[in-house]
Structure prediction request, 78 residues.
Amino acid sequence: MKGFTTKMVSIIFLCSMSAMMVTAATQPPPSGGVLPAIVLPAPDQPEHQTYLGIQGKQSFTIPDIDAQIVIVEIFSMY
Prediction:
């Protein structure tokens, strides 16, 4: 049963990765431009939701975060 679970998790992971690759932008945002709307899953822990200012949401976008400044680090993976 452990081998079956491992295989299923691997298949789900690979499928989700291929779906993300299909939805990726073909060009990076221009310098000084605005990031596209990225929908993120809300954390399960209520204290993490409170920290981000997104209480009661299933998902959120970066502008939803209750902060004056949000730093986003983007990694180029080629």
Notes: The CA atoms of residues 8 and 19 lie 17 Å apart. The radius of gyration is 17 Å. The first strand starts at residue 40 and ends at 41. Residues 2-23 form the longest helix (22 residues).
